[in-house]
Fold this sequence. Notes:
This protein is an alpha+beta fold. The protein is 29% helix and 31% strand. The longest helix is centred in the first third of the chain and has 19 residues, at 228-246. The relative contact order is 0.09. It binds guanosine-5'-diphosphate (GDP). The site of guanosine-5'-diphosphate has 17 residues, from helix 2.
Amino acid sequence: NIFQMSSNENFSSANSSNRPTVLEHTRNIGIAAHIDAGKTTCTERVLFYSGVVHKIGEVHEGGATTDWMEQERERGITITSAAISCGWTTSEGPFASIPHRINIIDTPGHVDFTAEVERSLRVLDGAVGVFTSVEGVQPQSETVWRQMDKYNVPRLGFINKMDRMGSNFLAAVESMRDKLGANAHPLFLAIGAEENFRGLVDLVKMVAYIYDDTDQSGVRFTVEDIPSDLADQASEYREALLEAVSDFDDDIANKYLEGEPISEEEFKLGIRKATLSLKFIGVIPGSAFKNKGVQMLMDAVVDYLPSPLDLPPMKGEDSDEQSVEVSPDDSAKVAGLAFKLMSDPYVGKLVFYRIYQGTLKKGSSLYNPRTRKSERVSRLMVMKANDREDIDVAYSGDICALIGVKDVVTGDTLADKDLDLRLEPPSFPEPVISMSIEPATKADQERMGIGLQRLAEEDPTFGLSTNEETGQTIISGMGELHLEIIRDRLFREFKVDANAGKPQIAYRETMLKPSEGNGKFIRQSGGRGQYGHAMIKMEPLEKGKGVELENKIVGGSIPKEFIKPTFDGIKEAALSGVVAGYPVIDFKITLYDGSFHDVDSSEMAFKMAGIFAFKDAMKNATPILLEPIMKVEVSTPEEYQGELMGDLNRRRGQIQGIDSRGNACIIQAFVPLENMFGYSTDMRSLSSGRADYSMTPSHFEQVPQSLVQTIVETSSREPART
Ligand code: GDP
């Protein structure tokens, strides 16, 4: 179990005395959902209710509540912000009456923008998965859910749209169990469904909350006895919940077995423990649109999702690529991650920043190990529901926006200059497609360069490079749509009309076998010579693991200052593989030996030694070519199913499954991207225009040997990403 419930001890020592909200009462969360499941509406409601806390008096005094729609509309604008902050105080349970700060980090639902999802997952501590009570788990929510598994994010489920025709809370919970393999348990039951959805049964307290029909804003509800027709079901599900929580909490397990009473507070702390274990998901029914269930969800966020203190330390490395850990502590030197850049018409470039340790003061400088430059933070801000607020100080665990830091890209570490630290950036998927791009008029060349550069800074899955043979500018990304949007933004934001070439596949290379490499760069003919020598082990890593570099030099066979140049050489060599010159991915290099010369050794010589060692190792490692495989989902009336499946087979597709949804038939398949060009036209003509499809990059796979030669000969290589 990697999560620990924070003890009071580390809690007090990590906090500086003047912070507005102590770490233990901060929640950095994301809301993840399939498009249209209601993420935006939920977020708006959360902001509304958190703002309304201060206004409840007015409501009781008979103040108008009808104008809240208006205010909400204004708030709607700021929801597009990368992170917004609001307050919430629960009235009961372990954190009763303690003000909490909830930071909501934007998590896009659209899979085309996986990079956005990845980078937000890196900086959030917990999440709410929003599903609909009619459709249950849908494909995109599944994708995001799996990414959250990868980043070990504790979660709650919110089953939205209980007011809709055909809604069924328990069936939706079941679909979380089936499709996501989640150990999902209702924390509440729904009272009524569709237009009769009236409230929720609290399975911890065993009471019912019935919303007041006359209050359209859902602020007022009454606490009542559980309706008699739900009493048995409520007992049954409470029992199931207790049993599930017993697996994570021995005290509760014992009391449960002995039939002893369990207090509300104990029960809630048990649910918290279970949630933090990542092996339990509490689920809440509601209707964001009809303003029901949102307050219960917010209570659950406070009660069950982690604070920054509950998290395992954040990993990073120093300049020798040795691993370093950071934990929230206000008195430590400041370190954090820039996770999103946005341009703002009023203040210019906003850098959204998560502080992992230390305290950041307005006016201080942050060092960027990538650029080796320090920049001054001229202003610090937090985004509030309907406003933004200038602040003077931000503390560890906080999410804030920096102004004044210019030379920065998504995923950069910004830290105190004395800290030798680079935090682990989010891992971004490799681009699958590339194309050449040129401005319609020569005069636009420079502006296009600036525009593309700016867009590449914001979007880490968008790559930019130059083909050295032809001098053309090459852009690469996650699909045709992605690159289309880039072209469109170039036009709208930078007024550059650009023509794009034919899309090309972004192949990659890796190796099948471990091997060793010996790289020597020695020039000793008159004057000062050159001497660099590195010995490495190379091994393939699992798909999607990226590149790992480990330094195992002992006894100074390569002096400390030449380790990084050696790794730089290895990284440079890996940009262009030996099969067809594509970037090499998913491997580990261990630098274990080498030698040096007192006078002739230099950074440059060791960089060359790194390059030679890498190339040498690749030769004997059975290098292979990889191609992007797409996850394709075709939705069609049944009568075209056979034709469409035959067509997918001809495209080297592997059919994964056939499902029915309503009266449509859903075919799922993995198909090499190479064979997906022109698919929409063929699919339409095979189905008389009635089928539809979606496609997302899934993974890379080895190109069959019979096709490698053609690819090597015909592909105009996409040079390495910069
Ligand atoms: P997002 O794409 O996940 O951000 O979803 P939105 O919040 O934009 O909601 C998509 C649509 O569903 C909008 O038309 C909402 O008004 C509607 N919607 C959201 N929540 C509910 C709900 O609880 N009940 C009903 N009936 N509609 C809802």
